C-alpha cells in the first residue's frame, strides 16, 4: 500500500507472510481510481433534510478524485439490516448504476460488512462507505513515514473487523500442492497475518511517539507555550498557519489538505517564543480507527497550552462544525485545554469586520479575521498574548517534608522558581506554572490547594 523505508521491508522468509497482508490493505487503497464515476447515496433519518451533508460527501469524493454523476436520497426512521437503505431504494441504485455505467456506489454512511457485500452483489459494482472513503483520502495525503504508518494502521484495523462477513471467498480451506497443512482456513491465515502487521506498525509508531514525547518534554522544561490549530477540515488552518509563521505549508480549498503535522516557532510580544502546531482537520463521523491511529500526532493537541479553534465563518453549518470538533477533542482527551475561537474567512461574509470578542471575565474568547488577506492577524496575536498572560499563574506553596514526591514532580517539570526552607523544615516554593498544567496536577493531588499561601 505504501512505499515503506528499507528498514520496513520484510525478509525473504517473511515475504510470503506479507504478500497477503499488503494485498488486503491494498484492496482499500486501490478501490478508488482517478476519474471513476460514482452514484452517491444518502439517507435522511429525520424530517428536517440536510443537503449540506450531501455537499460535504461530494467534496470528499472530489478529494478522492471521483466524479459524482448522480445522487439518490431516501428517508428512513432507521437503517435497514440487509441493505441499510431499504430493498426498493437498493434496487433503484442498481438501476442507476446500469443507466449511468457507474464504477462505484458511494454511501454517505457507515455500512456493516454484510450490508456492503449485499449492495455490491445487487449493484454489480464496488460499494464504498463513508469510512472507507475518508481512509482512502488519508492514504492519498500521507507524505511522511509516520503518516503512512498511521494510515496503514487505521486501514488494517478497519479491515480486521470486516473479514468475517465481507470476505466470504477467504473462508475456503487451503488446498493444492504445498498448501495442504494443519487445516487453517484462509480467513484464519488473514486474521493472523493482519495481527502480525498490526503489531509491527504499533511498535514502529511507539518509537516515533517516544521521540515526540522527548521533544515535548524539552519544550515543557524550557516553559515554551504550545499553540495548536484545530478545527473542521477546510476551515483554513494551514492558510492561517502560513500567515502567522510565514511558512509554506500546503494549503488548498479541499478536505484534508493537511495530514502530516507541522511545528513552527512563533514570537509573541510579552510572551516570547511559542510553538505553533498545524494539525489534521476533523470531520463528522471521523472513523474511530483513524483517531486511534493518529493519537500520537494528536497528543500535540492534548498537551497544548492553548487551542486555536479555527472556524469557517462563511459556512452555514459553522455551529454544527464546532460541535463536531468538540466531540473529537473530547474523544482524544483535549476538551479541558483552554481554547480561543478563531472565525476565519470573514472576507466571504457581509458586514463582518475584524474584531475581538471578550467573555464576562474580560478575556478574549473569539477573534474574527481573514487568513487569506491578512485582515485581523494582528488582533489574533493580541488575543493570544492576553490569553497566555492570563494562563500563567504565579503561586506560593508551603509543602511539608512528607510531600517530597510532589516537590520532585514540580522540579522535574521546571515549575519552581525559588525555594526556601522554613524553621519548621517546610519547603516554601515560588511557582510559575501554566494554568492548564496546574489544573492537571491538582486533579491528581487535590490536597495541594490546601498548601497555597
From TrEMBL:
Major location (coarse): cytoplasm
GO MF term set: GTP binding; GTPase activity; metal ion binding; ribosome binding
A Pfam family annotated for this UniProt entry: GTP-bdg_N
Compartment list: Cytoplasm
Protein name: GTPase HflX
Recorded family membership: Belongs to the TRAFAC class OBG-HflX-like GTPase superfamily. HflX GTPase family.
Binding annotation for GTP: 231-238, 256-260, 278-281, 344-347, 370-372
Function: GTPase that associates with the 50S ribosomal subunit and may have a role during protein synthesis or ribosome biogenesis.
The encoding gene: hflX
SUPFAM superfamilies: P-loop containing nucleoside triphosphate hydrolases
CC per GO annotation: cytoplasm
Span of domain Hflx-type G: 225-392
InterPro entries referenced in this protein's UniProt entry, alphabetically: G_HFLX_dom, GTP-bd, GTP-bd_M, GTPase_HflX, GTPase_HflX_N, GTPase_HflX_N_sf, P-loop_NTPase
Needed co-factor(s): Mg(2+)
Residues involved in Mg(2+) binding: 238, 258
Assembly description: Monomer. Associates with the 50S ribosomal subunit.
Keywords of the record: Cytoplasm, GTP-binding, Magnesium, Metal-binding, Nucleotide-binding
Coiled-coil features, chain-numbered ranges: none
